[in-house]
Amino acid sequence: MIFENKDKLKEKSAKIIKVDGQDITIMDEAKFRNxxxxxxxxxxxxxxxxxxxxxxxxxxxxxxxxxxxYSASIQPLYEAMGRKEVAGFTVPAINIRMITYDTxxxxxxxxxxxxxxxxxxxxxxxxxxxxxxxxxEYTCAIKAAAxxxxxxxxxxxxxxxxQISAKKYAADAAKxxxxxxxxxxxxxxxxxxxxxxxxxxxxDLSCPTVKEQQKTNYTLAAELTTxxxxxxxxxxxxxxxxxxxxxxxxxxxxxxxxxxxxxxxxELKKRGPSLTGISKISVQTGTxxxxxxxxxxxVAQVKIDFDVLEKxxxxxxxxxxxxxxxxxxxxxxxxxxxxxxxxxxxxEIHLATxxxxxIYDSANLPGELREKMxxxxxxxxxxEWKEKDTEEQFIYKTRKKGFGPFKLELxxxxxxxxxxxxxxxxxxxxxxxxxxxxxxxQDVVKKYISxxxxxxxxPAAFKG
Length: 464
What we know:
TIM Barrel, eight-stranded parallel beta barrel, 19 helices, alpha/beta, 11 strands, 2 domains
């Protein structure tokens, strides 16, 4: 059910929850988990009434807190990794582009079965646009999924690739920087307490020295870090990530990492001698976002330079106290590659396209809907169809952009269909949690991550 207005929402939820000051008391937990939470998240995502959306979002977030589910920063754990108190696993950061409520449930089920350590839920600046998921909606879908599955504990929400567009920056640097700052503000308000800054697009390899090549990158990264520190809620140090090499470009080097960090720390000290810097560093080691499609639509095998990744992680920890290096664009790698990441000390790995591929390629996705989505892509993105690309290559490169326009149809697939798709995803999540060595690491999270209750303003629908 989608509540058409706030009054209907209040009427239907009156016997299940009670608004108690700035908080929610859940009077019938079974009814809340079994039915009302579904209605609330579908209202947040699909209701035409803004007041109903806001009310549903507030209930989800406050009810989650009442049930022991809270937004958290992974900073204390990453600091422990930087001190070498914790090691031996790689944190998966998962971008959910499709059927977010059901996909997140699959992640929580897999994590609870494995008694897994930290899992990050993230969304990139570009994904926010083409999947049509603003940060508050994404937060609500993840927390509603946690409620639905009975999960308790921290939820690590992350802004991935909050990236400065080099083209837009060249045209109007102030405007493009402000756009990213506005997004950071919006994300923190939504409970994203982990932010990956990506100013690596501004690295200029034509400059004579490596430090000069990285200068705009580290200067702007320091500026955005300072803003994040000004906005972070009391009691929380937001985990901030930096980036030295754009994914899909040339492989990163130790010299580049050191040049970035030296310049970044110098700039950060100018802005405040006690400011906390980044907790991890994203590097390039040979991958491309989404993989490289071949003429038949399959993905080319990619060779990651694990030696480089190991060296960069070691320098990041030993010299700068960071958790280590971060690997992007890895979800389409062969299965046998994943246990190598914890073996070489990779702090975090970003995974996205492989999961969208599971959905698109599944026999459980109705063929008519898949074809309808592909036809939409061919009609609306034909200007992105390169002359040298086959139809299969074009579809593979653009099909991530089909999830937003078809969000309504995907979310409203029959429950049995969504359950089957969720089971396929859950199987892959379980595999990855095992390979990345976070299975059985639940106690690590409990040791380093504590709950901090961040106030959330009550919407007008409940005031008075």
